[in-house]
Design a protein that fits this description.
- This protein is 34% helix and 19% strand.
- With 218 residues, the protein is α/β, with parallel strands linked by helices.
- The protein has one domain: Alpha-Beta Barrel (TIM Barrel).
- It has an 8-stranded parallel β-sheet.
- α4 links the parallel β4 and β5.
- The protein binds D-xylitol-5-phosphate and zinc ion.
- D-xylitol-5-phosphate binds next to β2, β8 and α7.
């Protein structure tokens, strides 16, 4: 499978969001990655349901909604109504993870689990066949533009092995500090989806950066 690119709008220009949404629509990107932060699970507050509803009216690609919030189950139906296609929840925020995954899927969305850098992939062995996506955080969540944590490669290998062994269909998504140097190594290790914020929106030519992440061309 050709790998997927999911630009993170956290680093987009929120005073002119339509410009960046249009750019992503016209680019080779595959998903919109939307980071929802509550100021409790992570030390930052971003945006929520009303903003996603507006993004949905312009976006022509699936919305991958990354929930960095406590007790996310309270809002699954609201995110569905706002236009979410994929919802990922943190392992660290879900006491009843199996129930949360089932609830997301019962609303007709794809479900994923996110692991913080310190969380072992072995902990999701019992839900690996239930999830559509496993998102490995390659920075501590909360902010864009942080430095990539090298231990992520080891987790990708381990997770890939688990997915193959269990015949799971889960995609491996990587989020945080992804750039043109580590991107090919991550794909080589077994990643399927690369999230990128700063590498895309912090560059002089975002559309070209998406293309480079997609094809690893110079
Ligand atoms: C961090 C978010 C990321 C962030 C990635 O908590 O989950 O999606 O936007 O930004 P970069 O690619 O700049 O590290
Ligand atoms: Zn994210």
């Amino acid at each position: 499978m050709e790998h997927l690119i999911a630009p993170s709008l956290l680093s987009a220009d929120f005073s002119n969001l339509i410009k960046d949404i249009t750019m992503v629509n016209q680019s080779e990107a595959d998903w919109f990655h939307l980071d929802v932060m509550d100021g409790v699970f992570v030390p930052n507050i971003s945006f929520g349901i009303p903003v996603i509803k507006h993004i949905k009216t312009h976006a022509t690609k699936p919305l991958d909604v990354h929930l960095m919030i406590v007790d996310p189950d309270r809002y699954f139906a609201d995110f569905k109504n706002a236009g979410a296609d994929i919802i990922t929840v943190h392992y660290e925020a879900c006491t009843h993870l199996d129930r949360s995954i089932a609830a997301i899927k019962s609303l007709g969305m794809k479900a994923g689990v996110v692991l913080n850098p310190h969380t072992s992939v072995l902990l999701i062995e019992n839900v690996i066949k239930e999830v559509d996506v496993v998102l490995l955080m390659s920075v501590n969540p909360g902010f864009g533009g942080q430095k990539f944590i090298e231990n992520t490669y080891r987790k990708v290998y381990q997770l890939k092995e688990m997915i193959v062994q269990s015949e799971s269909k889960a995609l491996i998504e990587i989020d945080g500090g992804v750039d043109l140097i580590n991107a090919p190594k991550l794909i080589e290790a077994g990643a399927d989806v690369l999230v990128a914020g700063n590498t895309i929106f912090g560059s002089a030519n975002p559309m070209d950066s998406i293309s480079k992440l997609k094809h690893f061309s110079e």
